Amino acid sequence: MVNVLSVSGLKVTCADDRTLLNHIALDVTKGERIGLVGTSGSGKSLTAAALCGLLRPPLAACVDHLDLDGSEMRRASSRDWRRLRGKKIFQIFQSPASALTPGRRIGPQLKECCKQVGAPIETANLALERVKLSHDVMGQFPYQLSGGMKQRVLIAMALILRPTILIADEPTTGLDILTEADILAALSEMLDETGSALIFISHDLRAVSQVANRVLVMEAGTIVEDCPVAELNQSAAPAARQLAEAAKALEATC
Ligand SMILES: Nc1ncnc2c1ncn2[C@@H]1O[C@H](COP(=O)(O)OP(=O)(O)OP(=O)(O)O)[C@@H](O)[C@H]1O
Questions:
Q1: Which residue, by CA, sits nearest to atom 16 of ligand 1?
Q2: Band of residue 137 on the pLDDT scale cut at 50, 70, 90
Q3: Residue 216 Cβ < 6 Å to ligand 1
Q4: What does the alpha-carbon distance between residue 229 and residue 34 come to, in Å, rounded to a whole number?
Q5: What's the complex ipTM?
């Protein structure tokens, strides 16, 4: 199996020398779908930001090895990262508003993605159709769209960019259960079409098991478990078992 992401010895520190992430090691194979779970503050979003080269001072990252689809990124500059972001690694954020430029209509933002990967401009319309959005959305500003619609626009961007790895950081948080199901279905279809690997960050094990078969559990800035979703309840790591038990208890009350 070809690794599209291989990272070891990732450490993130803060200006006051606090270690926020430590000993992060992770391999992702082509097209693999992984869930990244853990309690609030365990380091999921920081891990995602580090893997996308998006950490900014006062945070600093160092890493023993970071290979992104054949590019060694250990000493990569911001420029190197800008060149690869979108094409090789693309992130869908919890708050889609922060990923879209507020003062720019959706059309130009989608067309920019087309330009970035040399795709014909019509690809933007096709991508909108694939995520069940009308072409009218092209003329609208992000503030005119609902949260679910903005997430669909980001999935449309991923359809255009066809990244090697997609990181989805709690993409359904704050959405109602029907919209959540729609977004997860659109995400799965996008992955089927593009063959992108997925790192899906969520608190919701039910959603994780819908889109991923392998799960990583984080606790206090490190990965404490890496196993198939179905085996989480037998984990030697208490944090992993607690998550599985909490999810089961929640299911029983529904
Ligand atoms: N810019 C920052 N400066 C200092 N500390 C930070 C910064 N960003 C995050 N942290 C700290 O790093 C730790 C991990 O944060 P992170 O956002 O990765 O958690 P998370 O697991 O994604 O949480 P949640 O599930 O609530 O989104 C937390 O203790 C957080 O306070």
A1: 43
A2: very high
A3: no
A4: 9
A5: 0.97
